Amino acid sequence: MRYLLIVCLFFIEFLASILNVMKLLPEIRRVKCRSFQAKLNLLVQFVEENTEIEEYVNQRTEAEKAANKQPFLLCTGSLAQPLNFFLVIEGSLVPLGQNSSIAFNVLFCSFFVFQLHYPPYIKPLFHFFEQRVVQLASMSASTADFVSRLESIQPL
What we know:
Layout: H1 2-24, H2 26-29, H3 36-43, E1 44-47, H4 53-58, H5 62-67, E2 72-77, E3 82-89, E4 92-97, H6 100-113, H7 123-134, H8 143-152
Parallel strand pairs: 1-2
Antiparallel strand pairs: 2-3, 3-4
């Protein structure tokens, strides 16, 4: 039971750490035309535990879809108690489980896999992750090297 509690706290703290990085990055803080909540929604959206998530995704308004075209995470539960994560991409849901670090890694990798641009208002977060965590900036351009580096990434 104690181990389970420690694991749960780690996953919650990982998500909270990513959000704190978002709050602290000067390039994101300088963007005044969007609230922090609007920037957060580009990364992860929280819905109540009993929400029918397929309906939630399908019933998003055109304005919501236009504001958030890129892949993003959908989380049932709350920041304090995240339950399950899903990758939302082009209206499709990909279940990712309960681990926030794996969910973020899948989101991050999805931009490369689908050759998409990062959302402009939170681009500095992904660049920070690219350069400081995954260290893609020092990588050579060869595909084999890129694949081997991705495969060597250990879950946080």
